[in-house]
Amino acid sequence: MLRAPSKFVRSWLAAAVVGSVLVGCGPSAEESATGKARSAAKTEVTVEPIKAATELTDVNGVRISLKKQPERIVCLFALCDDILTELGIVPTATNSQLLAHRAFLGEDRAKKVDVIPGGFIAPEVEAILSHKPDLVIGLGDTHGKLAPALKGAAAFWAMQPETWQDSVGYLRDAAALTGRTAEGEKAERAFRTKLAQAEKAPSDKTALIIYGSDENFGVATPEADVTASLFPKISKYPWKSRGVEGAYSLEEILAQGVDVLFVETMSFGAADGKLSEKLAKNPLWSKIPAVRNGDVHEVNSEVWAKGRGTRSLGIVLDEATAALR
Asked: Has residue 28 been placed in a domain?
């Protein structure tokens, strides 16, 4: 029996913000018999205004205080890059590959952004400080230990998202601190509109997101995975977190009759093949309905697993809803 690991290196990011969804009806009385004149109901979403600030208590209750709006921001993980892109800001330096995606800066522009050496787990403090940042944004459980070394030189903001609502909250807080309030509201509205539209027409198919680099895969669950938190209202998604010691087996996945499978191949160093190709060596893999029917989708892990912001999640919604039809 093949089981997922009890602990797998994957972290997730943003505070719930009130947004009201108003659904208006499209024309229906005079629809053509052929259906050519049919039009879908429009979904209108309003968001709470964002007020510019140089200090605030973030979505996790942490006090962030700056002397002025930050101009030089160093990103130590991809949610930061996602948020800044939504706000029209290019980070001074980064620690992820997300910016190279065509929906962000693209490969050519991304090459102009310096990369912090040391990798995701241990970015070099000296390199960070060499960019003279006003603000450094990192993942709390991974980069929180850097805060003492940055004290007095740059403000450090530790984010720790678990759901899409968290990510929206961090977007709003970043918009307030940078003074990009209109951009923040626009990005939030666009994402919430896309999500509301997807939730209006949920799929009856059973979906699953798995991730990993080899046969020891992980299952993304809504309670601890930002991307997976989108899925319960747009599809059947019967996967619950089992904590750090929990895991799902291929036998359990087979028993659930997964119709659509999304696979995030995580590379740690040189790429050595797709996760789906490695799992194909197990005889149980071919029996999963999604595999039998050719509905296995290898997705971009930079966006699906690491992005976690409203731009990345918008891409996820586009790709997921297309596959779930």
From this structure: no
Structural domain contains residue 9? no
Q: Is residue 170 part of a domain?
A: yes
CB 310 within 8 A of CB 190: yes
What is the total residue count of the chain?
A: 325
Are 221 and 163 contained in the same domain?
A: no
Q: Which amino acid is at 154?
A: A
- The residue segments making up the domain with residue 222 are 202-324
Domain boundary among 196, 227, 245: 196
Contacts of 304 (CB under 8 A, 6+ apart): 209, 227, 262, 264, 312, 316
Q: First vs last Cα of the chain: how many Å apart?
A: 32
Please indicate, yes or no, if residue 45 is contained in any of the structural domains: no
- Are residue 99 and residue 186 in the same domain, yes or no? yes
d(CA 316, CA 302): 11
How big is the chain by its Cα radius of gyration, in Å? 21
* Cα dihedral sign, 302-142-168-223: positive
Residues 297, 217, single domain; the answer is: yes
- Please list the pLDDT of the chain residue by residue as tens digits (325 residues): 443 443 334 443 333 333 333 333 333 444 433 333 333 456 779 999 999 999 988 777 888 899 999 999 999 999 999 999 999 999 999 999 999 999 999 999 999 999 999 999 999 999 999 999 999 999 999 999 999 999 999 999 999 999 999 999 999 999 999 999 999 999 999 999 999 999 999 999 999 999 998 878 999 999 999 999 999 999 999 999 998 767 899 999 999 999 999 999 997 655 678 999 999 999 999 999 999 999 999 999 999 999 999 999 999 999 999 999 9
Q: Which of 196, 231, 261 is the last residue of a domain?
A: 196
Q: Are 192 and 202 in contact (CB under 8 A)?
A: no
| Run of H or E residues at 321 | helix 310-324
Q: How many domains is the chain built from? A: 2
